[in-house]
Design brief:
By secondary structure, the chain is mainly alpha-helical. About 65% of the residues lie in helices and about 0% in strands. Helix 2 packs across helix 3. The longest helix has about 55 residues, at about 10-65.
């Protein structure tokens, strides 16, 4: 009796469903393989494009004339020796930290791996102009704080206002009254219409003045101001 009541369509339905599942699985596998092929093709195209860009970049770098850092540094030394106040300040700041802190060169392509205000001023170019700029002949200049301080003092005595601010910074803790004197001298000769060598100097000047006025007595402030009025720059 059970055999007579078995649904004759059931095996056909099951078979049809099974074949449908196999077809769907096949389509899914083909889709995954096609997607993988497209993805691999896209990655290969992106890799080829990246290699082309890098090759073009290397050609562009090779075509640019290299900046001779040793030559630029020698010219800076010459200017400082002849009494150029701005050159004294820049040379002092380089001697304070050493050339390795100013510029580091990748030997593979001659490009800098670091930048600084000193480097931009030394070679006479802005930061965006130094992108992909090759350099050569970087001199070994080790930090020399004593020589740097002497040059800084010389530039300050010659009337370089930024050097006077930097000298005040050096004196803030050891001799705050003299530090305030140099700030007041810098205030009197501040180059309002001239671009400063270091962009942060004006902010530093204001910060130092505020701190020094806050820590010194009225008598010391008056004495520093009196001394500042008698300052005369050393003649070249």
């Amino acid at each position: 009796m059970a055999e007579r009541h078995r649904n004759p369509l059931k095996p056909l339905v099951v078979g049809t469903l099974f074949m449908g599942l196999i077809a769907l699985a096949t389509l899914a596998i083909r889709g995954i393989m096609t997607l993988s092929e497209h993805q691999q093709s896209g990655e290969e195209a992106a890799l080829r494009q990246a290699k082309q860009w890098e090759a073009e970049r290397e050609r562009r770098i090779a075509a640019r004339p290299k900046i001779d850092v040793s030559k630029a540094y020698g010219e800076l030394q010459r200017k400082a020796a002849t009494g150029d106040r701005d050159a004294m300040l820049l040379l002092s700041s380089i001697l304070m930290i050493g050339m390795e802190e100013v510029i580091q060169i990748d030997p593979a392509n001659g490009l800098r791996t670091s930048s600084s205000d000193q480097l931009e001023i030394l070679v006479g170019k802005q930061f965006d102009e130094l992108l992909e700029q090759p350099f050569t002949n970087v001199p070994v200049v080790r930090p020399d704080p004593i020589a740097a301080r002497l040059l800084l003092e010389k530039a300050a005595r010659h009337g370089q206002a930024e050097a006077q601010v930097r000298l005040a910074q050096e004196l803030e803790n050891s001799d705050p009254k003299q530090a305030l004197r140099w700030i007041m001298i810098a205030d009197r000769g501040w180059p309002a219409e001239k671009r400063t060598i270091f962009v942060s100097t004006n902010d530093l000047r204001n910060e130092l003045r505020s701190r020094l006025l806050g820590k010194l007595s009225p008598e010391n402030i008056a004495e520093a101001q009196h001394q500042a009025t008698y300052f005369r720059p050393t003649q070249q």
